[in-house]
Amino acid sequence: MSARLGVLLLSLLLCVQAAAGATVLQDLARGDEAYARRAEGHTGLWAAPGPISEAIEAYEKALLADPDNQLARTKLLRALFFKGDYVVRDRDTKLRIFERGQAVGEDGITRLIAGTKLDRAGGKHHDELIEHLRNEPHAAGVYYWSAIHWGLWGRHRGKIAAARQGVASKVRNYARIVNSVDSTYESGGGHRMLGRLHAEAPKIPFVTGWVSRALAISELEAARSFSDDPLTLLYYIEALFEYDTSRHDEAIDLLRSLVTREPEPGAVVEHMRAVSDARVLLDRLSK
């Protein structure tokens, strides 16, 4: 091959790569535009399927074109979560969506640790894993949304059955990794996830004996230091009512303030659902 032909082939390859990269960026932008409209056409506490399905399609196209693009992966996982939790009402369909999220997330984690001898959950090499992941810009997102899909799959599959299959331990390990890599991700999302896990997971000897109701409260308090959004606040209030009787007056005050909250423009359906659940809790406590 002549030097001139080699240069031409290299230039052609670079052009193809640049075009492919531009297409991925276009798909991500198209997905972001649709995701921003996810509350459009919602009926009460349920979102319409159209906008979020558009977002998922765009993110899937971007990820298919560039499987190592972890930003596309986190956006796809986030969109799948929204569809599974706020659009779909049928249990079996929810499970299929969360199973899809599990597969997408686990593939992302495999790619994040490719070429290393690290275990995906850290194990005895937790510090080495964290050091490695801190050099990966979207590692916290991949682990966070993967844990979300595992946790929601477990909730709809059945908490005890899921715990026996190791789902609770996986969520705990992934949430810890999120906190170690970037505790600010999703406004203290790792802490919120751990708090919710310790509040909801059944305590099964030799399976989830590590569950701590005190940690449920402290982790949710940590999450509130990043954001007092309606969902975090609701989880915190529920944990106080369930596990700390000495703070019921505080919980009642927080609950009464929560039910008057207006949903924020960027998360209308999510916040409406949290406020609605808060009203149901307040009504129950008032009887």
Question: Which tags fit this structure?
Answer:
72% helix; 287 residues
| Secondary structure tally: strands | 0
Order of helix and strand elements from N to C terminus: HHHHHHHHHHHHH
Molecular shape: globular
Radius of gyration: 21 Å
Structure commentary:
The protein has 287 residues and is mainly α. The chain has 13 helices and no strands. Helix content is 72%, strand content 0%. The longest helix has 34 residues, at 3-36. The mean pLDDT is 93.
Short note summarizing the structure:
This protein has 287 residues and is mainly α.
Topology record:
Elements: H1 3-36, H2 49-65, H3 70-86, H4 91-112, H5 126-133, H6 139-157, H7 159-164, H8 167-182, H9 189-200, H10 213-224, H11 230-243, H12 248-258, H13 268-286
Helix pairs in contact: 1-2, 2-3, 3-4, 3-6, 4-6, 6-8, 6-9, 8-9, 9-10, 9-11, 10-11, 11-12, 12-13
